Amino acid sequence: MNKIITSLVACLFLLSCSAKLKGRDGQSGKDGQTPEIITISKDDVKKSMEYLASDELGGRATGSEGSEKAATFIENFFKKNGIQPYFESYRDSFQLGNVTGYNVVGMIEGNDPNLKDEFIILGGHYDHIGKGKVVDGDSIANGANDDASGTIAAMEFGRYFSKSKSNKRSILITLYDAEEMGLKGSAHLAKRLKENGMKAYTMINFEMIGVPREDGKSMSYMSGYDRSNFAPTLNKYAGEEIVGFFPKAKDFNLFMRSDNFPFFKELNMPAHAISTFDFTNFDYYHHVDDEADKMDYEHMANFINKMIPALEGMMNAPTKEVLLNDE
Fold first, then answer.
1. Tens digits of per-residue pLDDT, 101-151?
2. Domain spans in the chain, listed from the N-terminal domain onward
3. How far apart, in whole angstroms, are the C-alpha atoms of residue 207 and residue 274?
Protein backbone atom coordinates (compact mmCIF):
# COMPACT_ATOMS: atom_id res chain seq x y z
CA MET A 1 0.00 0.00 0.00
CA ASN A 2 2.82 2.41 0.90
CA LYS A 3 4.43 1.81 -2.52
CA ILE A 4 1.12 2.58 -4.26
CA ILE A 5 0.69 5.82 -2.28
CA THR A 6 4.29 6.83 -3.02
CA SER A 7 3.75 6.20 -6.73
CA LEU A 8 0.53 8.23 -6.74
CA VAL A 9 2.24 11.15 -5.01
CA ALA A 10 5.08 11.04 -7.52
CA CYS A 11 2.62 11.04 -10.45
CA LEU A 12 0.70 13.98 -9.01
CA PHE A 13 3.94 15.91 -8.52
CA LEU A 14 4.96 15.31 -12.14
CA LEU A 15 1.53 16.35 -13.40
CA SER A 16 1.73 19.49 -11.31
CA CYS A 17 5.13 20.37 -12.72
CA SER A 18 3.87 19.73 -16.25
CA ALA A 19 0.91 22.08 -15.71
CA LYS A 20 3.18 24.85 -14.48
CA LEU A 21 5.33 24.53 -17.57
CA LYS A 22 2.38 25.41 -19.77
CA GLY A 23 0.86 28.80 -20.38
CA ARG A 24 -2.81 29.59 -20.97
CA ASP A 25 -2.48 28.55 -24.60
CA GLY A 26 -1.15 25.12 -23.59
CA GLN A 27 2.34 25.76 -24.95
CA SER A 28 5.41 24.72 -23.01
CA GLY A 29 7.39 27.36 -21.16
CA LYS A 30 10.37 28.91 -22.94
CA ASP A 31 13.52 26.76 -22.79
CA GLY A 32 11.83 24.44 -20.29
CA GLN A 33 11.54 27.21 -17.70
CA THR A 34 8.48 27.56 -15.51
CA PRO A 35 6.63 30.75 -16.52
CA GLU A 36 5.73 33.19 -13.81
CA ILE A 37 2.19 32.59 -12.53
CA ILE A 38 0.47 35.98 -12.51
CA THR A 39 -2.83 36.67 -10.80
CA ILE A 40 -4.36 40.12 -10.47
CA SER A 41 -5.18 40.68 -6.81
CA LYS A 42 -7.91 42.84 -5.32
CA ASP A 43 -5.25 44.52 -3.18
CA ASP A 44 -3.35 45.69 -6.28
CA VAL A 45 -6.57 47.01 -7.80
CA LYS A 46 -7.58 48.74 -4.58
CA LYS A 47 -4.19 50.40 -4.15
CA SER A 48 -4.37 51.98 -7.60
CA MET A 49 -8.00 53.00 -7.09
CA GLU A 50 -7.34 54.68 -3.77
CA TYR A 51 -4.85 56.96 -5.49
CA LEU A 52 -6.59 57.67 -8.79
CA ALA A 53 -9.93 58.35 -7.09
CA SER A 54 -8.47 60.23 -4.13
CA ASP A 55 -9.35 63.81 -3.19
CA GLU A 56 -5.70 64.68 -3.90
CA LEU A 57 -6.41 64.33 -7.63
CA GLY A 58 -9.43 66.62 -7.40
CA GLY A 59 -11.64 64.75 -9.89
CA ARG A 60 -9.01 64.53 -12.68
CA ALA A 61 -10.45 67.20 -14.98
CA THR A 62 -8.45 67.62 -18.19
CA GLY A 63 -5.71 70.23 -17.78
CA SER A 64 -5.84 70.16 -13.98
CA GLU A 65 -3.05 69.36 -11.53
CA GLY A 66 -4.93 66.18 -10.61
CA SER A 67 -5.00 65.08 -14.23
CA GLU A 68 -1.24 65.57 -14.44
CA LYS A 69 -0.77 63.48 -11.30
CA ALA A 70 -2.93 60.71 -12.77
CA ALA A 71 -0.93 60.68 -16.02
CA THR A 72 2.34 60.52 -14.07
CA PHE A 73 0.99 57.67 -11.94
CA ILE A 74 0.11 55.68 -15.09
CA GLU A 75 3.52 56.40 -16.65
CA ASN A 76 5.30 55.19 -13.51
CA PHE A 77 3.16 52.03 -13.50
CA PHE A 78 4.19 51.37 -17.09
CA LYS A 79 7.88 51.91 -16.31
CA LYS A 80 7.77 49.69 -13.22
CA ASN A 81 6.12 46.85 -15.13
CA GLY A 82 8.22 46.93 -18.29
CA ILE A 83 5.54 48.37 -20.56
CA GLN A 84 7.38 50.36 -23.24
CA PRO A 85 6.38 53.69 -24.82
CA TYR A 86 4.80 53.36 -28.25
CA PHE A 87 5.71 56.90 -29.31
CA GLU A 88 8.87 58.82 -28.35
CA SER A 89 7.47 59.03 -24.82
CA TYR A 90 4.41 57.63 -23.07
CA ARG A 91 2.46 60.83 -23.71
CA ASP A 92 0.35 61.58 -26.75
CA SER A 93 -0.43 65.27 -26.33
CA PHE A 94 -3.15 67.36 -27.94
CA GLN A 95 -4.59 70.85 -27.60
CA LEU A 96 -8.12 71.87 -26.68
CA GLY A 97 -7.99 75.65 -26.89
CA ASN A 98 -5.58 76.73 -24.16
CA VAL A 99 -5.72 73.33 -22.43
CA THR A 100 -3.21 70.56 -23.12
CA GLY A 101 -4.47 67.00 -22.82
CA TYR A 102 -2.40 63.82 -22.60
CA ASN A 103 -3.22 60.28 -23.59
CA VAL A 104 -0.81 57.80 -22.00
CA VAL A 105 0.20 55.03 -24.39
CA GLY A 106 2.27 51.91 -23.68
CA MET A 107 3.15 48.88 -25.78
CA ILE A 108 3.82 45.18 -25.20
CA GLU A 109 5.43 43.71 -28.32
CA GLY A 110 4.07 40.40 -29.58
CA ASN A 111 6.26 37.30 -29.50
CA ASP A 112 5.30 35.90 -32.91
CA PRO A 113 7.36 37.22 -35.86
CA ASN A 114 4.40 36.77 -38.22
CA LEU A 115 1.72 38.32 -35.98
CA LYS A 116 3.47 40.98 -33.92
CA ASP A 117 2.81 43.72 -36.49
CA GLU A 118 -0.92 43.38 -35.77
CA PHE A 119 -2.11 45.33 -32.72
CA ILE A 120 -4.78 44.77 -30.09
CA ILE A 121 -5.77 48.06 -28.43
CA LEU A 122 -6.99 48.02 -24.82
CA GLY A 123 -8.01 51.21 -23.08
CA GLY A 124 -10.04 53.32 -20.68
CA HIS A 125 -10.28 57.02 -19.86
CA TYR A 126 -8.50 58.39 -16.82
CA ASP A 127 -10.05 61.86 -16.82
CA HIS A 128 -13.24 62.83 -15.01
CA ILE A 129 -15.37 65.94 -14.52
CA GLY A 130 -13.45 67.53 -11.64
CA LYS A 131 -16.17 69.13 -9.53
CA GLY A 132 -19.79 68.06 -9.06
CA LYS A 133 -22.89 69.16 -7.20
CA VAL A 134 -21.97 69.70 -3.54
CA VAL A 135 -23.21 67.00 -1.15
CA ASP A 136 -22.51 67.39 2.57
CA GLY A 137 -19.70 69.82 1.80
CA ASP A 138 -18.03 67.53 -0.76
CA SER A 139 -17.58 68.96 -4.28
CA ILE A 140 -14.96 66.54 -5.69
CA ALA A 141 -16.31 64.13 -8.31
CA ASN A 142 -13.68 61.43 -7.73
CA GLY A 143 -14.64 59.24 -10.69
CA ALA A 144 -13.88 55.85 -9.15
CA ASN A 145 -16.24 53.81 -11.28
CA ASP A 146 -16.11 56.41 -14.10
CA ASP A 147 -13.50 55.54 -15.20
CA ALA A 148 -10.66 54.87 -12.80
CA SER A 149 -12.05 51.31 -12.76
CA GLY A 150 -11.59 50.83 -16.53
CA THR A 151 -8.23 52.59 -16.44
CA ILE A 152 -7.00 50.19 -13.77
CA ALA A 153 -8.30 47.16 -15.70
CA ALA A 154 -6.33 48.24 -18.79
CA MET A 155 -3.23 48.87 -16.66
CA GLU A 156 -3.47 45.43 -15.06
CA PHE A 157 -3.89 43.75 -18.45
CA GLY A 158 -0.72 45.56 -19.46
CA ARG A 159 1.11 44.34 -16.37
CA TYR A 160 -0.03 40.77 -16.96
CA PHE A 161 1.05 40.57 -20.59
CA SER A 162 4.30 42.43 -19.99
CA LYS A 163 5.22 39.85 -17.34
CA SER A 164 3.82 36.72 -19.01
CA LYS A 165 5.04 37.62 -22.52
CA SER A 166 2.30 35.31 -23.77
CA ASN A 167 0.88 37.59 -26.48
CA LYS A 168 1.63 36.71 -30.10
CA ARG A 169 0.16 39.96 -31.40
CA SER A 170 1.33 43.28 -30.02
CA ILE A 171 -0.77 45.20 -27.50
CA LEU A 172 -1.31 48.92 -26.97
CA ILE A 173 -2.43 49.98 -23.50
CA THR A 174 -4.09 53.34 -24.06
CA LEU A 175 -5.41 55.61 -21.30
CA TYR A 176 -7.34 58.58 -22.60
CA ASP A 177 -7.74 62.15 -21.47
CA ALA A 178 -10.71 64.43 -22.27
CA GLU A 179 -13.33 61.70 -22.67
CA GLU A 180 -15.65 63.84 -20.60
CA MET A 181 -15.16 66.69 -23.10
CA GLY A 182 -16.50 64.58 -25.98
CA LEU A 183 -14.07 61.68 -26.62
CA LYS A 184 -11.37 64.18 -27.59
CA GLY A 185 -8.37 62.16 -26.41
CA SER A 186 -9.35 58.88 -28.05
CA ALA A 187 -10.31 60.73 -31.25
CA HIS A 188 -6.85 62.32 -31.40
CA LEU A 189 -5.07 59.02 -30.80
CA ALA A 190 -7.19 57.03 -33.26
CA LYS A 191 -6.50 59.58 -35.99
CA ARG A 192 -2.77 59.57 -35.22
CA LEU A 193 -2.58 55.78 -35.36
CA LYS A 194 -4.40 55.78 -38.69
CA GLU A 195 -1.99 58.38 -40.10
CA ASN A 196 0.92 56.23 -38.89
CA GLY A 197 -0.46 53.25 -40.81
CA MET A 198 -0.93 51.05 -37.76
CA LYS A 199 -2.16 47.52 -38.49
CA ALA A 200 -4.83 47.53 -35.80
CA TYR A 201 -6.92 44.37 -35.42
CA THR A 202 -9.36 45.03 -32.57
CA MET A 203 -10.02 47.51 -29.77
CA ILE A 204 -11.71 47.15 -26.38
CA ASN A 205 -12.52 50.11 -24.14
CA PHE A 206 -13.17 49.26 -20.49
CA GLU A 207 -15.80 51.64 -19.16
CA MET A 208 -17.08 51.49 -15.57
CA ILE A 209 -16.30 47.96 -14.36
CA GLY A 210 -16.16 48.80 -10.63
CA VAL A 211 -19.47 47.25 -9.52
CA PRO A 212 -21.02 43.84 -10.26
CA ARG A 213 -24.29 43.18 -12.03
CA GLU A 214 -27.14 41.28 -10.40
CA ASP A 215 -27.03 37.49 -10.10
CA GLY A 216 -28.38 35.85 -13.22
CA LYS A 217 -26.99 38.49 -15.56
CA SER A 218 -23.79 38.12 -17.56
CA MET A 219 -20.74 39.44 -15.75
CA SER A 220 -20.41 42.28 -18.28
CA TYR A 221 -21.92 43.49 -21.52
CA MET A 222 -20.51 44.86 -24.77
CA SER A 223 -21.74 47.95 -26.58
CA GLY A 224 -22.50 47.42 -30.26
CA TYR A 225 -22.90 43.71 -29.53
CA ASP A 226 -24.29 42.85 -32.98
CA ARG A 227 -21.71 44.86 -34.93
CA SER A 228 -19.14 42.04 -34.73
CA ASN A 229 -18.59 38.55 -33.36
CA PHE A 230 -16.30 39.91 -30.63
CA ALA A 231 -18.39 38.85 -27.62
CA PRO A 232 -18.90 35.20 -28.64
CA THR A 233 -15.21 34.96 -29.51
CA LEU A 234 -14.17 36.18 -26.07
CA ASN A 235 -16.70 33.90 -24.39
CA LYS A 236 -15.35 30.91 -26.33
CA TYR A 237 -11.87 31.44 -24.94
CA ALA A 238 -13.12 32.30 -21.45
CA GLY A 239 -15.10 29.05 -21.33
CA GLU A 240 -18.20 30.88 -20.09
CA GLU A 241 -20.34 33.89 -20.91
CA ILE A 242 -18.39 36.75 -19.40
CA VAL A 243 -19.63 39.26 -22.02
CA GLY A 244 -23.36 39.37 -22.68
CA PHE A 245 -25.99 41.36 -24.56
CA PHE A 246 -27.60 44.39 -22.87
CA PRO A 247 -30.67 45.65 -24.78
CA LYS A 248 -30.49 49.16 -23.33
CA ALA A 249 -26.98 49.64 -24.70
CA LYS A 250 -28.53 50.27 -28.11
CA ASP A 251 -31.36 52.38 -26.65
CA PHE A 252 -28.78 54.61 -24.94
CA ASN A 253 -26.53 54.63 -28.03
CA LEU A 254 -23.58 53.52 -25.88
CA PHE A 255 -21.54 52.34 -28.85
CA MET A 256 -21.06 55.91 -30.06
CA ARG A 257 -20.73 57.49 -26.61
CA SER A 258 -17.50 55.91 -25.42
CA ASP A 259 -13.84 55.81 -26.43
CA ASN A 260 -14.21 52.77 -28.65
CA PHE A 261 -16.11 54.76 -31.26
CA PRO A 262 -13.24 56.89 -32.67
CA PHE A 263 -11.23 53.70 -33.28
CA PHE A 264 -14.13 52.08 -35.11
CA LYS A 265 -14.63 55.25 -37.14
CA GLU A 266 -10.96 55.86 -38.06
CA LEU A 267 -9.63 52.30 -38.35
CA ASN A 268 -12.76 50.44 -39.53
CA MET A 269 -12.28 47.52 -37.16
CA PRO A 270 -14.17 45.78 -34.35
CA ALA A 271 -14.05 48.28 -31.47
CA HIS A 272 -16.38 48.04 -28.49
CA ALA A 273 -16.80 49.12 -24.87
CA ILE A 274 -17.19 46.53 -22.11
CA SER A 275 -18.93 47.56 -18.89
CA THR A 276 -20.46 46.06 -15.74
CA PHE A 277 -22.40 49.24 -14.91
CA ASP A 278 -25.92 48.87 -16.31
CA PHE A 279 -27.71 51.93 -14.84
CA THR A 280 -29.38 49.80 -12.14
CA ASN A 281 -26.40 48.82 -9.97
CA PHE A 282 -24.75 52.16 -9.10
CA ASP A 283 -26.42 55.46 -8.21
CA TYR A 284 -23.46 57.81 -8.44
CA TYR A 285 -22.76 58.52 -12.11
CA HIS A 286 -21.07 61.96 -12.35
CA HIS A 287 -21.66 62.32 -8.62
CA VAL A 288 -19.36 63.30 -5.77
CA ASP A 289 -20.05 59.93 -4.11
CA ASP A 290 -18.43 57.96 -6.95
CA GLU A 291 -15.60 57.11 -4.57
CA ALA A 292 -13.08 54.36 -3.98
CA ASP A 293 -14.87 52.96 -0.93
CA LYS A 294 -17.92 52.12 -3.06
CA MET A 295 -16.03 49.89 -5.49
CA ASP A 296 -16.21 46.09 -5.28
CA TYR A 297 -12.58 44.99 -5.49
CA GLU A 298 -13.34 41.26 -5.39
CA HIS A 299 -15.54 41.75 -8.44
CA MET A 300 -12.95 43.89 -10.24
CA ALA A 301 -10.14 41.39 -9.73
CA ASN A 302 -12.43 38.52 -10.74
CA PHE A 303 -13.48 40.34 -13.91
CA ILE A 304 -9.88 41.09 -14.90
CA ASN A 305 -8.67 37.56 -14.20
CA LYS A 306 -11.53 35.99 -16.17
CA MET A 307 -10.98 38.37 -19.07
CA ILE A 308 -7.28 37.48 -19.40
CA PRO A 309 -7.71 34.03 -21.04
CA ALA A 310 -10.44 35.48 -23.27
CA LEU A 311 -8.12 38.22 -24.51
CA GLU A 312 -5.19 35.83 -24.76
CA GLY A 313 -7.07 33.34 -26.89
CA MET A 314 -8.31 36.03 -29.24
CA MET A 315 -4.95 37.77 -29.63
CA ASN A 316 -3.05 34.50 -30.15
CA ALA A 317 -5.34 32.89 -32.74
CA PRO A 318 -3.44 32.17 -35.98
CA THR A 319 -6.00 34.05 -38.08
CA LYS A 320 -8.25 37.05 -37.43
CA GLU A 321 -11.38 35.55 -35.93
CA VAL A 322 -13.08 38.77 -34.85
CA LEU A 323 -14.80 40.38 -37.81
CA LEU A 324 -17.24 43.22 -38.40
CA ASN A 325 -20.75 42.11 -39.27
CA ASP A 326 -22.56 43.54 -42.26
CA GLU A 327 -24.89 46.28 -41.11
1. 999 999 999 999 999 999 999 999 999 999 999 999 999 999 999 999 999
2. 1-35, 39-316
3. 6
Contact 166, 83 (CB under 8 A): no
Nearest to 232 by CA among 242, 247, 218: 242
Enumerate residues 6+ apart whose C-beta is below 8 A from 47: none
Whole-prediction pTM value? 0.90
Q: Which CATH superfamily is domain 39-316 in?
A: Zn peptidases (3.40.630.10)
- 38-77 confidence digits (pLDDT tens): 889 999 999 999 999 999 999 999 999 999 999 999 999 9
Angle formed by the axes of helices 149-164 and 65-80, nearest 10°: 20
Q: How many CA within 13 A on the CB side of residue 8?
A: 5
Report CA-CA distances (Å) from 37 to 23, 40, 106, 109, 163: 9, 10, 22, 20, 9
